[in-house]
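Hi support team,

I submitted a single chain yesterday and got back a structure, but I'm not sure I'm reading the C-alpha cell output correctly. Could someone confirm the output below corresponds to the sequence I sent? I've pasted both exactly as they appear in my results page.

Thanks,
R.
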Amino acid sequence: MNLHHHPAIHTATLPDAARLNALICAGFQRHRDDPDVRRSHLLEGRYENVYVGRDRIPELGEVLDHAVDLARNILNEPDRPLRAGCWFNDMPPGAATLPHSHDDDDELLSATYYLQIPPNSGELILHDGATRTVVTPAEGLFVFFPPDVIHEVTRNSSDRHRLSLGINIGPDDPPG
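Hi R., thanks for writing in. Yes, this is the structure output for that exact sequence:
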C-alpha cells in the first residue's frame, strides 16, 4: 500500500470504483449548482471546494466508509471510531491547486479520491520535509497522507474537467 516506499503516504483502490464513480459524478453534476450547496476557496474564478453531501449523493457513503476502514488500518487503530468529511474539487482545463495542508482541526489523516481523471489533467505533489512525492492520479485511487503534509495539484492540461474528492478523517468521539 505504500507509495514509493514513503512511510507516511499510502495508496489503495476502491472495489467497484467504475460504477460508484459514474453515480457520484452524475450526482455532482445534478447538485453542484444547487443554491444551498456550500462552496469555499474562491481562486481564479472557481471555488476549489464544493460541498455536496451524502444526503444528495448517497453513493458517497460507500467511498467514505471504505476510506475510514483504510484509515483505521493505516493508523493501526482497528477499533477507533472515526468520521470522514469530504468535498469535491472540480478542476477545469487550465486550473491548478496551490500548495496547502489540511491540519486546521482534529484531522488524523487526509486523502484524495479520484473520480474523473482525463489524461494530462494534473499530478498530485506531496511535500514532506525534503521528500517530494509525485502521484499520477487514476480513477478509483485513494492517496492517504498526514494532514500537515503540504500538497498541490499541477495544472490541468487536458480539455476536460478533472473531478476528485478531498477527504479529512478525524476522531468520531462520543459527546461527553
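A quick pointer for reading it: The radius of gyration is 15 Å. Let us know if anything else looks off.

Best,
Support desk
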